[in-house]
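Researcher: Structure prediction, please.
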Amino acid sequence: MLVRLLMLSKRCPFPDVREKSEEILSGVQMIQVGNEDAVMHTLFADSFATLGRLDNVTLVMVFHPQYLESFLKTQHYLLQMDGPLPLHYRHYIGIMAAARHQCSYLVNLHVNDFLHVGGDPKWLNGLENAPQKLQNLGELNKMLAHRPWLITKEHIEQLLKTEENSWSLAELIHAVVLLTQYHSLASFTFGCGISPEIDFEGGHTFRPPSVSNYCICDITNGYHGVDEIHASPTGSIPSTESVCEVEALMEKMKQLQECRDEEEASQEEMATRFEREKRESMFVCSSEDEELAPTRDVSRHFEDTSYGYKDFSRHGMHVPTFRVQDYSWEDHGYSLVNRLYPDVGQLLDEKFHIAYNLTYNTMAMHKDVDTSMLRRAIWNYIHCMFGIRYDDYDYGEINQLLDRSFKVYIKTVVCTPEKTTKRMYDSFWRQFEHSEKVHVNLLLVEARMQAELLYALRAITRYMT
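Model: Predicted structure follows.
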């Protein structure tokens, strides 16, 4: 009860509730929610009313209110509105998905929610204690999380034709969306260094949910990082090298735009550049690239703990390129989801578009900058790592715009988020604002979610035809 009051006194967007909680806990000192602007207050109030808390993910995403509004709307629909799956199944699937990446933050959130909606506590002792129907989802969960290119229509058939434990198509679509949502949310959690909630283990000491010395929570106190533009992530005076890094990136963007205007590569050359970039992405790895043994608290929620991300061509394995021209979200996936789980296709489509198109026309200290080329390079690099190719994109641009440290961060956050470190976060785009790095993470998680969905939905489509 005391930790609940503590959370309410610091994170409730309603002044009367905060004041009463503070009256009870008059001796507690902590960063307050209450000085946010009108837009943020509305988002905080909606989040609190929906979830019963103002969590750290929301406090970080609020850097980008337009995206946060879409995210919260999608979360609310997937977890609480009428749908094919019962409420406790939804939260349990969220637990299964987050556990694949050892994301104890999300696991703990949904353990509480699972119990709150009447879930059986015995299921939390391990996946083997859950209904066979949920256990059967384990194979699809691990493949989506780590190697989605291996999913076939046979995997879909096994789930849909298992007699008394079978899934309906509508239920399976709901489950696939939840799995991909929580795999990608695990990437965001690790990519932004989200701390435990203040009423969870390790959270009551209150460490700001930030991967550097800048406190993300300061934004709710009316401080919007005016001085942040002039400070490096470590709080020191920005180096000439990091300033030059921004200038060099902008110059490359200008040169690439000029090259686009002058000449266009042939289809054969574009295909060659894609294969080269896909091949090179296999060799992008960090010095921290070592196996992490999941804790028992997390690993009990999934099977086959040794199964993880593998690059396409390791050990002689070859996976055909997935051509977006043959199966795309816009032309195929969107309509399939909307047909089987009404309105969700629209919600996901809105979320994808906001993340992809979001811009403030700034780069670090520079204003009035067209960042579309850079955003497209980030999105397409992620899809390239998953073997997904856009015929109309010149993959030669990626090596020009994304340096090695940035590629290491992207690949780690997207493919093995549990291995993300503060050093990786600090080493790329050193002169950019924290809000811009959060923006990068929004691109990473939405591109990853769409890639997983494309493979799963294509397999479902092939099963249906």
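Model: The CA atoms of residues 15 and 435 lie 27 Å apart.
Researcher: Thanks, that helps.
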